């Protein structure tokens, strides 16, 4: 899976920040996506995504890369959208 050139440890650090600040959930909600859709993309259950977003659990192993990649795509999509809107 693509980590955007980041080492796994760096992905985990960034992901932990996104989760603890609520940014991970904010990205998903702003994109109009359900936890079930995120779960499907990351090959986990919706309840797992719920626990990640609440900070009750952190992804581990391959899930770090899967969830980080998913959120990074949302960030890129948001950034590109912002450029078109002149933000």
Describe the structure.
The chain is mostly helical and 87 residues long. It has five helices and no strands. The protein is globular.
Task: Please provide a brief summary of the model.
With 87 residues, the protein is mainly α. It is built from five helices and no strands. α1 packs across α5 and α3 (35-42) packs across α4.
Tell me the layout of helices and strands.
Elements: H1 8-20, H2 23-30, H3 35-42, H4 46-54, H5 62-84
Helix pairs in contact: 1-5, 3-4
Features:
single chain; 87 residues; mainly alpha; 5 helices; globular
Radius of gyration: 13 Å
CA-based shape = globular
Query: Which parts are unreliable, with pLDDT below 50 for 5 consecutive residues or more?
Result: none
Number of helices: 5
The span between the termini is: 30 Å
The portion of residues forming beta strands comes to under 5%
The assigned structural class equals mainly alpha
Overall mean pLDDT stands at: 90
Helix content: over 70%
Major sheet characteristics = none
């Amino acid at each position: 899976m693509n980590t955007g050139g980041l080492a796994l440890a760096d992905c985990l650090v960034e992901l932990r920040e996104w989760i603890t600040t609520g940014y991970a959930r904010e990205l998903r909600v702003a994109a109009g996506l359900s936890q079930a859709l995120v779960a499907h993309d990351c090959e986990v259950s919706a309840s797992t995504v719920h626990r990640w977003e609440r900070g009750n659990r952190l992804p581990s192993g391959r899930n770090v890369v899967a969830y980080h990649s998913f959120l990074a795509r949302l960030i890129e999509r948001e950034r590109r959208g912002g450029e078109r809107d002149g933000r």
